[in-house]
Amino acid sequence: MSWLQVVVLSAIQGLTEFLPVSSSGHLRIFSTWFFGEDAGASFTAVVQLGTEAAVLVFFFKDIVRILVAWFRGVFDAGHRHDPDYRLGWFVIVGSAPIALIGFVGKDFIRDAARNLWITAIVLVVFSFVFLLAEKLGRQDRPVDAKSLDGLTMKDTIVMGLAQCLALIPGVSRSGGTISAGLFLNMSREAAARFSFLLAIPAVLASGLFSLPDAFAPSVGQSASGIQLLVGSAIAFVIGYAAIAWLLKFVQNHSLAWFAGYRVILGALVMILLGTGTIPAT
């Protein structure tokens, strides 16, 4: 990979990881459109470590509080009434589906699922899922947007399963999980906060698992260690700003804004594919 490609794609990753527009879809599209070749799922997974580091820093106090409460509860039954102990289990349980499906289907995810026709169609189709979630979600559930007190195991399982859809470029991890939260009548802010926490184990595991393959990928382009490091740093800085912006944005704005953008991008990619401007694979 060239340095220009690394910088551009890492910036795109940081900007789009937390927005419901699909960071993997954007990397797949713009890598081929701007640079003529798919950077590959492994590069995407590793650079996502930068944006996930932004989550760790942004939610550091929350993460430490949850971890402390979880470990206390595991070793002392007297602490198991703590809402943060339950929240720790919710994150673990909600991360299990994507871990299992991601491991079993890793070859399909790295190859066939990255066809640009699939990405373009999914961008458009799931835009209407977002709109439906906004229309049907009453957002009247008593789930605290800060502490997430009121979250249930049902919420966790549904949002965890929705997160699995993000393995297909074009769906969007945050878009899928936030939409699932809206269908469960949670507020956008509460759904977004849990979406970020839920992504931590999945993205960290995916990035670390894909690290060796990023240097000599079976599919996609290779990157040097320093390129992956710089790319992750760029994604971290931009991703941190994107988290703060999105949490503020969803308090008063719907996902419809992103749905419109997704439809336009998906349609544009279909035109580029149909005219032979970019290849599908």
Protein described:
- It is a single chain.
- The chain is mostly helical and 281 residues long.
- The protein has one domain (3-274).
- The protein has twelve helices and no strands.
- It has helices at 3-16, 23-35, 41-58, 60-75, 83-104, 106-110, 116-136, 153-164, 173-183, 188-215, 225-249, 256-274.
- The longest helix has 28 residues, at 188-215.
- The mean pLDDT is 90.
Structural class: mainly alpha
What percentage of the residues does DSSP assign to strands (E)?
under 5%
**Gyration radius from CA atoms, angstroms:** 18 Å
Tally the beta strands: 0
N- to C-terminal separation? 18 Å
Write down the domain tally.
Answer: 1
- The overall pLDDT, averaged over residues, is 90
Low-confidence spans: none
The helix content is over 70%
Shape: globular
Strand-and-helix sequence, N→C?
A: HHHHHHHHHHHH
Count of discrete alpha- or pi-helical segments spanning 4 or more residues: 12
